[in-house]
Amino acid sequence: MKSQLRAIAVAITLVAGVGTVATGTASAAPGDTFYTPPSNYSSEPGSVIKSRGTPLFLQIPGVPRAFPGNGSTIMYTSKLQDGSPTAVTGTVIEPFAPWRGKGPRPTVVMAPGTIGQGDQCAPSKLFGLPVSIDLAKPSLGINYEGLFANLLLYQGYRIMMTDYIGLGTPGVHTYVNRVEEGHAVLDGARAVLNFAKLPKNSPIGFWGYSQGGGATASAAEMASTYAPELNVKGTYAGAPPADLESVLKKVDGTSIVGVIGYTINGLVARYPELGPIIDREASPAGRQILKTLSTDCIGDTFFRYGFRNTSEWTTSKQSLFQISQKYPVIQKALDDQLIGKLKPSAPVLVETGVNDDIIPNAQVMTMVNSWRSKGANVVVSTDRTPPILSRLALNHALPYLFSTVPAYKFLFDRFNSPN
Predict the structure, then answer these.
(1) Which 3 state secondary structure label does DSSP give 373?
(2) Over the stretch 215-251, which tens digit does the pLDDT of each residue have?
(3) How confident is the model at residue 31 (pLDDT cuts 50, 70, 90)?
(4) How far apart, in whole angstroms, are the C-alpha atoms of residue 46 and residue 49?
């Protein structure tokens, strides 16, 4: 185990180094017809609708069994919040590295952190090169989760990274929608079992941080009712936005304040009664900002709107948090996204930073305590990095790097546990 952990630390340094300098065109253009679902497809959740091979960054062409493995983009069936079937895309990578633990090779379903809301930001479009630059829009797409995927592939895990509902595929990406993100993760697990022709009891784990942490936390607590047949062994949920009302207040004025716009766009798509409220409260500039954000990647959002306040988006000059307090329908929509109401059926590692400048530590611990009160097995890893350039999001991003080794050890132990 110690040698494997040292290898992870080295791999973080190497992959991070090469990942930051790669630029170019994404392996699939935003208008790629692969991402358009057929007129008819199976409504059974987890059904594989179609697939194709995917080139992978760092893979040397022509070399047999080149690192990190054999990649495929798949489209699979999931469900919207109202139960309607929908098509979702994701990336499956079968590693060439051997599984170093006991039993059959496990599958880790990865839920990406905030990538953006534009279709061009879908992680499956950024596995050939982790960065894409579209000068015409302009847009900057970054698949930083490829770093963590490669670390898991190096250890022999099969990877499935979902694109989420509406990211790449038609419709608005319903950012931080608890139910739809949980569906995308759980149906992603079902899909990889079908795609790889694996036994139904194959071991499954979930990995996610930030938006991804919310998605995996949601999947963990929904698994026993939505996908009880899955053999979920454990979940890593880092910095989960479990209480959107608390996060809304915290993130305003930070470098990634624009994610509030992603949230509004996603909520309006599922709660149409919010539309007239937004029309009434948002200024003309605010409405244009929301429209622009709906096609942005997180890099675009950072450069366009970083460190602004949402009070600049409204006619009353009140913040969006203040406006949310005035309307019961907004309160209900936010409450519907609260994570912690159900009991995870398998152990969960939750990471939280006491000085996280994006995802408040207190709301994470409220979720944890709610789970524990229901009898869930929850381990908490607390990051105590002192404040660094408040509002820049460094105290949100750095704990992800620092929690990688504990998260890997947790999942490795879970996959080697007889329970």
Answers:
(1) helix
(2) 999 999 999 999 999 999 999 999 999 999 999 999 9
(3) low
(4) 9
* Omega cis (within 30) before 138: yes
What pLDDT shows up at residue 171? 96
Amino acid making up residue 17: G
- Phi-psi region at 282: left, alpha or beta (left = phi > 0; alpha = psi -120 to 50): beta
Dist. CA 289–CA 330, nearest whole Å? 20
**What DSSP line would sit under 111-143, residue for residue?**
E----BSSGGG-GGGGSSSSEEEETTTTEEEE-
Condensed to tens digits (0 to 9), the pLDDT of residues 334-378 reads: 999 999 999 999 999 999 999 999 999 999 999 999 999 999 999
Q: Provide the whole-model pTM.
A: 0.91
Per-residue pLDDT tens over the stretch 167-219: 999 999 999 999 999 999 999 999 999 999 999 999 999 999 999 999 999 99
Give me the phi and psi of 259, to 5 degrees please: -65, -20
- CA pseudo-torsion sign 169, 216, 346, 409: positive
DSSP labels, 243-305: -HHHHHHHHTTSTTTTHHHHHHHHHHHH-GGGHHHHHHHB-HHHHHHHHHHTT-BHHHHHHHH
**Is the CATH number 3.40.50.150 carried by domain 2-243+342-415?**
no
Distance, in Å, from the CA atom of 33 to the CA atom of 387, rounded to the nearest integer, reads 45
Three-class secondary structure of residue 351 per DSSP: strand
Domain with CATH 3.40.50.1820 in the chain: 2-243+342-415
DSSP state of 356: -
Residues of the chain with CATH 1.10.260.130: 245-335
Phi and psi, residue 70, nearest 5° = -105, 115
CA-based angle 229:232:237, to the nearest 5?
A: 135
- In the block, tokens 């602004």 appear at 308
CATH architecture of 245-335: Orthogonal Bundle (1.10)
